[in-house]
Write a structure and sequence with these properties.
By secondary structure, this protein is an alpha/beta fold. It contains seven helices and seven strands. The chain has one domain: Rossmann fold (3-Layer(aba) Sandwich).
Length: 262
């Protein structure tokens, strides 16, 4: 796979298409090397996309901690930012989140991949200590925030569509995780399910939605419950690779991806 990735940097794409790929911390970190596959699932997916030779340009932006909100406000991240556009391949700790509208204007993408959802688990109010379930009010608050933010994001995503150019999009939902901080396991499982169900309902048919929460299982011990990079490197790389390959296998072809016509 790494050899294919390196070859893709010098191959001529079969189609003159541009891909804009935005994501959260799962699309930050370091790329694979000949001796160490990356533990970043989003970057492993990017490597597969580049190796597939489908696009003349892949513009990838990953921002740690982001939901849809930061791509509309421009709020900075302070825990990791990945930018890979052509020869620019940069990973820094702090950086602004580029505005989605500006990225669309700059890149004029034919296809957009949106890898967001993990941080939407925080859209729900913090549970009280030892709480095993969210209240009905907390659930409504979280779901409503996701609906409103995703709809506003989609409105920007489709705003540049014209009669001659319609951007197609695929929304890649959050992978599996585990309870972390004060979010206990029953609450985490419920919230992860609600995030996926809510995004699926809101996003389609504007975008194709891929629920990735069953593609790999986050280990019961080790790591921080979110990132594969916090696990043993071999374990993290294996999980990241499996997730990325399964997502890649589920991506619609350019001809059949849902047209952004929200």
């Amino acid at each position: 796979m790494i050899a294919l990735f390196l070859m893709a940097l010098t191959q001529t794409p079969t189609q003159a298409l541009t891909l804009l790929y935005v994501g959260d911390s799962h699309t930050t970190g370091t790329h694979s090397t000949p001796t160490q596959p990356s533990t970043s699932p989003g970057l492993r997916l990017e490597e597969l996309i580049l190796a597939s030779n489908q696009f003349s340009l892949v513009a990838t932006y990953g921002r740690c901690g982001d939901t849809t909100a930061q791509w509309m406000s421009g709020d900075p991240t302070t825990c990791g930012a990945h930018t890979h556009v052509g020869s620019l391949n940069q990973e820094v700790f702090s950086a602004p989140t580029p505005l989605l509208a500006s990225l669309i204007k700059e890149n004029n993408p034919d296809v957009i991949y949106v890898q967001l959802g993990t941080n939407m688990i925080r859209a729900f109010p913090d549970p009280s200590p030892n709480t095993q379930t969210d209240s009905a009010a907390a659930t409504i608050q979280g779901v409503t925030w996701i609906e409103n933010s995703a709809n506003a994001f989609l409105k920007i995503l489709t705003s540049a569509n014209t009669s001659t150019h319609t951007t197609k999009c695929v929304w890649i939902g959050p992978p599996d995780g585990r309870a972390y901080a004060n979010i206990r396991e029953p609450i985490f499982r419920t919230r992860l399910s609600l995030v996926n169900k809510t995004l699926h309902r809101v996003v389609e048919p504007t975008c194709t939605y891929i629920d990735t929460s069953t593609f790999v299982q986050y280990p019961a011990t080790g790591g921080n419950g979110i990132h594969y990079s916090q696990l043993d490197p071999k374990v993290g790389a294996s999980l990241a690779g499996t997730w990325a390959q399964t997502v890649f296998n589920n991506l619609p072809t350019n001809a059949t991806a849902s047209a952004a016509s929200h």
